[in-house]
From TrEMBL, chain A:
<keyword id="KW-0874">Quinone</keyword>
<keyword id="KW-0830">Ubiquinone</keyword>
<feature type="domain" description="NADH:ubiquinone oxidoreductase 30kDa subunit">
    <location>
        <begin position="30"/>
        <end position="149"/>
    </location>
</feature>
<dbReference type="InterPro" id="IPR001268">
    <property type="entry name" value="NADH_UbQ_OxRdtase_30kDa_su"/>
</dbReference>
<comment type="similarity">
    <text>In the C-terminal section; belongs to the complex I 49 kDa subunit family.</text>
</comment>
<keyword id="KW-0813">Transport</keyword>
<keyword id="KW-0472">Membrane</keyword>
<keyword id="KW-1278">Translocase</keyword>
<keyword id="KW-0520">NAD</keyword>
From TrEMBL, chain B:
<feature type="transmembrane region" description="Helical">
    <location>
        <begin position="111"/>
        <end position="130"/>
    </location>
</feature>
<keyword id="KW-1278">Translocase</keyword>
<feature type="transmembrane region" description="Helical">
    <location>
        <begin position="6"/>
        <end position="30"/>
    </location>
</feature>
<keyword id="KW-0874">Quinone</keyword>
<feature type="transmembrane region" description="Helical">
    <location>
        <begin position="305"/>
        <end position="324"/>
    </location>
</feature>
<keyword id="KW-0520">NAD</keyword>
<keyword id="KW-0830">Ubiquinone</keyword>
<feature type="transmembrane region" description="Helical">
    <location>
        <begin position="150"/>
        <end position="170"/>
    </location>
</feature>
<protein>
    <recommendedName>
        <fullName>NADH-quinone oxidoreductase subunit H</fullName>
        <ecNumber>7.1.1.-</ecNumber>
    </recommendedName>
</protein>
Amino acid sequence: MTEALLQTLAQRFGAEPYSAVSYVGAPSIVVPLNQLHDALRFLRYEASTRYEMLVDLSAIDEAGRGGGFTLFYHLLNLDSAAFLTVRCPLFSSLLEVPTASDIWPAADWYEREVYDMFGLRFSGHPDLRRILLPDFWQGHPLLKSEAGRATERPDPFGYDPESLNKILQGYMNPEQGDDGEMVVNIGPNHPGTDGIIRLVLRLRGERITSLEQEIGYHHRGAEKVAEFHTFHNYIPYTNRIDYLGGVGGELPYVLACEQMTGIEVPPRAQAMRVMLAEIFRLSSHLVWISSLGHNLGAMGPAFYAFMEREKLFDVIEEVCGGRMHPAFYRIGGVAQDLPEGWKRNVLRSCDAVEERIPELEALTTKSYIFQTRTKGIAVYTPEQAIDWALTGPNLRACGFDFDIRKKLPYSGYEQYDFDVPVGTDGDAFTRTVLRIEEMRQSLRIIRQVVATMPDGPILSDNKPRYSLARKERALEDIETMIHHFIEVGRGLPFPRGESFFPTETSKGLTCYTLVSDGSANPYRVRIRTPSFAHFQSVKAVGVGDVLGNVICLIGSIDYVLADIDR
Amino acid sequence: MSPWLFWPLITIAMVVVILGLILAAGFTVFGERRILGLLQNRYGPNQAGPFGLLQAIADAVKLLTKEYFLPGFVDQKLYKLAPVLVVVTVLLSFVVVPIGKGISFAADFNVGLLFILGLSSLHVYGIFLGGWSSSTKYTVLGSIRTIAQLISYELAMGVALLGVVLLSGSFSLEDIVLKQDIAYIFLQPFGFIVFFIAGIAETNRLPFDLPEAENELAAGFNTEYGGMPFAMFFLGEYLGIIFISCLTTTLYLGGWHGPWAESYPLVGVFWFALKTLALLFFFIWMRASVPRVRWDQLMSFGWKYLLPLGLVNIIATALISALWM
């Protein structure tokens, strides 16, 4: 962000740089509430660097840091991959915030989530309801005053008859008229939705006249859970956010922690991280191609893809010990060194996948029926892609060459030679082609990592204050033993500050925003997931299409339920 | 043969054939699961009996012993009639298929082909009524698709068959087989293609399994069926596949013709079974390989490609046979 822009913002909107605590990861400005809407509109449409995409919107309950709330908006300029965090302090939850959903349609669900979690209201919002929690839920969970444990809550289980009745009514057709339309519930349990999610369709024949999504069935309160864990202990939760992405989900979290504390990761650990993240990207894409195939009625791809995924998991298991949820990354490095003979195994799995890719292509992108089912189907225009904050392959399919691994390399991605495939049509077919090409590129990266794997330590030791004591030494000297025992249980106080880190996971842009108040637990963890934004956009593209195409659409945008609901 | 002997014998033969066909359908299901397993690098059912051969029986027993459940919101008469219609129409169709020289119930029935076309339309009624009488949304959508599918392939199918009728000069399946010194697939390649694609659509198999497209419509027309009635639909579907394979064999692949089939009719049965099994394998192979088309794509394919191709085929056949034969 340039000085000039900062000047303009300061003059026109009274914005000033955020300086209360150190904030790393992106420039950050504070805008007063009465100027917020104008400032956001200015940033999207008029600023010299246009921040055209709303990546994330959430809030912090400042009860423990001086009271009130802070709303924050993460904005993104695609060309220069520049992030900007706009903060807006609120002194009370009674204040109404002007909605940003008229600037970015994607703000719709984010604002509903803020309302759901914090009770903040947005004026002018088209449909301000709860989104992740059921309508009859009492309280707003991310408030600091809310209990974090179920046992501390007043009788949390069971529906009262009235609420239950209301839910059941929601499944009925409210106005059963003779207008030739009918309401069809796809889900919560349906073979075509890849998980528990509900689409309420209004159909005329097979054409969809209106569509509404209902999410939250998979909500586990990951962000609230974080506040009761130490920084180090939270890692296993992060790979369950996108449960197909494995360590890919751990990466932004540990990187955000390291950015906040200044821990430097040794090169070997960085290379291992890249290798494992790419292996998981492969495996996630393999699952995706099988589920898209399945959504279109093809049985074949699922079996072929899962066979190769199994071979990748063999490697993962050998290196990490776990399969889908390895919890392998540590703040400052990785959990353990590579086992003997890892090179041969990794390369063998890579070869196996590479040999299988042409078969997968023959069953999908080269199949005539698959082409007719996906070409020109579920098309996002570039404007829609920006409006609805698409990221990852879905964004690249619309013609944007945007990959954080290239634009803002992290964890040593800049050392590896790989291409970012970009499409033009924005349809389901392009998304398929791109993901298959991405698999090839991932293989390239993995092979380069294998060839250039540096020697050296796998855990950093430049900031012992924020790193756990070494387990392997704990049984040898009593000092380490004591520290290890205490620090694993109580955690290590992290410095006061905030940290924001975006990474490119298999589905798109996953960002972690960490807030530390100087204790051993995060004050607030905000997880921005690509699936949430992608699934929100189904409404924009699905209406007016036919039923079969919508099944193709939701298959092709690659979402994972846990990644939507967190 | 005296009528006193004729009717008991015919009854016994009918029972034997019906049981045989039902078993054949059961083993087609088993064969499909094993072959799909083979094509997809997995085993398939291999636990019940040697090579899993008893799986078909086990499935049948399981479905037969399930509770008969009648949902409260259905149109009871049609709901019960639909599965019966599906099975009976296919079983009846087998009557006119000659499986060897002189081995059939009524292959010399002089409008055999029309009889089959009529029954195949009734068969579709079974599926349509099943979905419609269940009166839930997915089943109704399945039913609508069934009709959409019917009008897009039925005409093409009939037109394709006329080519065979022109060449053989008869609607009787026995005559058609006897006339095939050269299998009609060589004389009627386009007719064969049109008929077989329409046949796949008729049996609701991938890539045309739109009425029950599970990813879109849960289970389509049979969503509300369970236990025995569901088993009847299942049976109907697989009998349908067997029947379309038999019919294609009869009309285009020379029926029971083959070496020594003239002098030994049982050898003819062998050839007939072999050709039918090859077509059955093709059905299963398709299922393992292709995605599903969209219903409007099937309609436009039926009207824009299949029907014109069939018409061109029949005009060409008529001209050629008028000028040269």
